[in-house]
């Protein structure tokens, strides 16, 4: 009994220390996952705590459950609209990108760590997956506002590339133990894992949603049901031969995109549970590590970390995103946001549990790679986004939205606005009945409604509204982006009517005109250019100017910006990530320059070549025999 109490006391103390240090980390910008990992290292047998924990099987069990909870919550918070915007680029990164990273890092590991080829590829496989917890936290909680397509690509990739890395790791461990199977066996194994995992995830997510909506459970019991369903789907899929990690992510995705009873409370519960899972997993992995063993492999591991960050990840991202319309700066940012985390260390436990000869070397290498990734990439994501000019100006709209569950079909939200200084409300315009606030807070104090008839800039107002009326309310309290001078670099210098034709704009500004596009409206031109999936900030070059999607409402373009000069947003900061058309243009330009230089060299040699000597003069006596002979 006393030993049990000591274990509980130590575990709760570590959790409290992690939470308190995370509060300090937020103030100085330290990656939280690095803090949790450091707490485990300091408490471990090589740290000041001296706690001895050397049970990789238990660590893998706890870590797998924690990762299943994290993946379920990440699916629960991902909307299908994100997939419509970024499904193909994200899934190509989650499959082809993982394979490219595994090959590049594995090849380097063979020579740097002097491991057999199978174990070297295992090093590449365990560090090939980006960490969903780290990416979701830094993008959602870190306050980095980037374009939806880039954000969705990173979030979907981080949530969906774990199954691929897990499949590769399992296949390589089987190959190390029993030898490579036939291509048919390998192919059938992959197909079974992916297809069965996706199918059971769809079935499990739909069943979970139907049960929550129809069972009429006590509100406090619903979160327990979702948690147990998630773990049941994860474990059951693994037992049946599918990918449990893929299944639990798909189940969360399905359940999160239907109307769930008590959805607000469910999301709040799983958000807290995800935090607990992250803390437990990172602290536990820190306890499991033994830093005194790092000395023999620290230099090769640092070399692999540098290769992963600067070569393998950028190469994989460039190859996968080449067919899609990402700018060079966006590709650079996606390549940089490739944080490695608990998934890599968790997968590194698999060769240790399988008693492979190089299992401990693989785990130690993965541990060092994760620390370097969190230090270098985790600390610089914000500055990198600003340096690449990817920070999107804040959108004018509600600062807070709370879904309300009301009896029947009543669909209302509680929304909060901060009144914009140039909004109609701040200029004294009379508010329609549907937009009258229910609560006004001015300078931190509640103002009675009869005294707040005239709203002031900076007032925080709360009102109830159906979701379909929010665009109208935005215009009353949020102001127009056209009035903001700070947004010019991103949204352009002028505002154009999207119904204007290309021909009209070309005549007005003296731009080159393509006859095939002359009769198109600006709205149709942009939609055709981006395949109908436009989002704010999308750009099309037209001569020396750029047309920019400035405002949208219900997926329809409502205003177009015109940048008179290409801005820093489109100028590549790192001229490495080019699209095929740009690469072909550069190749042609280089070939033309080389051909011109070769022609210049030939002409120069021809000019320097000495002129041929004139024939010697012929005397009259020599001419006479020739005449006689003729």
UniProtKB/TrEMBL annotation:
Q: Which SMART domains match?
A: CorC_HlyC
Q: Does the keyword Membrane apply?
A: yes
Which keywords appear in this protein's UniProt record, sorted alphabetically? Antiport, Cell membrane, Ion transport, Membrane, Transmembrane, Transmembrane helix, Transport
Record field: compositional bias (Basic and acidic residues): 620-630
Residue intervals passing through the bilayer: 6-26, 33-53, 59-76, 88-109, 121-141, 189-212, 224-251, 272-291, 297-321, 333-354, 360-381
The ranges of region (Disordered) come to 601-630
- Transport as UniProt keyword: yes
Q: Where in the cell is it found?
A: Cell membrane
Specify the Transporter-associated domain's residue ranges. Answer: 487-566
* Membrane-topology annotation of the record: Multi-pass membrane protein
Alphabetized InterPro entries for the sequence? Cation/H_exchanger_TM, FAD-bd_PCMH-like_sf, Na+/solute_symporter_sf, Transptr-assoc_dom
The name this protein carries in UniProt is: Cell volume regulation protein A
Species annotation: Azospirillum rugosum
């Amino acid at each position: 009994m006393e030993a049990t109490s000591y274990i509980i006391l130590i575990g709760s103390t570590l959790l409290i220390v992690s939470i308190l240090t995370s509060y300090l980390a937020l103030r100085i910008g330290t990656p939280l996952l690095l803090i949790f990992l450091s707490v485990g290292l300091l408490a471990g047998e090589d740290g000041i705590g001296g706690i001895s924990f050397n049970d990789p099987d238990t660590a893998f069990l706890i870590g797998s459950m924690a990762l299943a909870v994290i993946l379920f919550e990440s699916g629960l918070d991902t909307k299908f609209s994100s997939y419509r915007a970024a499904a193909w680029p994200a899934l190509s990164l989650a499959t082809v990108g993982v394979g490219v990273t595994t090959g590049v890092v594995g090849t380097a590991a063979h020579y740097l760590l002097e491991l057999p080829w199978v174990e070297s590829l295992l090093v590449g496989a365990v560090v090939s997956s980006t960490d969903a917890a780290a990416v979701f936290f830094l993008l959602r909680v870190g306050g980095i506002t980037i374009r939806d397509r880039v954000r969705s690509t990173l979030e979907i990739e981080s949530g969906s590339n774990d199954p691929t890395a897990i499949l590769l790791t399992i296949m390589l461990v089987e190959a190390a133990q029993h030898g490579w199977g036939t291509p048919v066996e390998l192919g059938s194994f992959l197909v079974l894992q992916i297809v069965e995992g996706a199918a059971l995830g769809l079935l499990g997510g739909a069943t979970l949603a139907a049960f929550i909506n129809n069972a009429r459970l006590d509100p406090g019991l619903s979160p327990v049901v979702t948690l147990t369903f998630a773990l049941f789907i994860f474990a059951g899929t693994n037992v049946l031969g599918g990918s449990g990690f893929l299944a639990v992510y798909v189940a969360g995705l399905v359940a999160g995109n239907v109307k769930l009873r008590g959805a607000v409370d469910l999301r709040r519960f799983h958000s807290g549970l995800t935090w607990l899972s992250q803390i437990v997993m990172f602290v536990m992995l820190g306890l499991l590590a033994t830093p005194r063993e790092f000395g023999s492999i620290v230099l090769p591991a640092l070399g692999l970390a540098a290769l992963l960050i600067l070569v393998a990840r950028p190469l994989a991202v460039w190859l996968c995103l080449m067919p899609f319309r990402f700018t060079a700066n966006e590709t650079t940012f996606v390549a940089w946001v490739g944080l490695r985390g608990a998934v890599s260390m968790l997968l590194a436990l698999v060769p240790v549990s399988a008693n492979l000869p190089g299992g401990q070397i693989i785990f130690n290498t993965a541990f060092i790679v994760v620390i370097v990734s969190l230090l270098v990439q985790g600390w610089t994501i914000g500055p990198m986004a600003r340096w690449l000019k990817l920070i999107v100006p804040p959108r004018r709209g509600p600062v807070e939205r709370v879904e309300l569950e009301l009896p029947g079909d009543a669909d209302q939200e509680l929304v909060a606005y901060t009144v914009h200084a140039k909004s109609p409300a701040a200029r004294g315009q009379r508010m329609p009945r549907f937009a009258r606030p229910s609560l006004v807070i001015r300078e931190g104090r509640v103002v009675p409604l009869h005294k707040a008839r005239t709203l002031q800039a900076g007032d925080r107002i709360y009102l109830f509204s159906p979701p379909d009326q929010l665009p109208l309310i935005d215009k009353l309290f949020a102001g127009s982006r056209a009035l903001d001078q700070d947004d010019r670099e991103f949204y352009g210098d002028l505002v154009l009517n999207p119904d204007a034709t290309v021909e009209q704009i070309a005549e007005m500004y003296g731009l080159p005109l393509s006859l095939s596009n002359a009769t198109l409206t600006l709205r149709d031109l942009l939609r055709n250019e981006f395949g109908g999936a436009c989002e704010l900030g999308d750009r099309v070059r037209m001569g020396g100017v750029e047309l920019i999607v400035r405002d949208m409402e219900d997926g329809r373009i409502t205003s177009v910006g015109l940048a008179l000069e290409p801005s820093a947003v489109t100028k590549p900061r790192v001229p490495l990530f080019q699209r095929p058309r740009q690469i072909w243009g550069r190749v042609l330009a280089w070939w033309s320059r080389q051909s011109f230089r070769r022609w210049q060299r030939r002409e120069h040699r021809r000019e320097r070549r000495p002129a041929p000597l004139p024939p010697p003069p012929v005397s009259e006596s020599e001419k006479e025999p020739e005449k006689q002979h003729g």
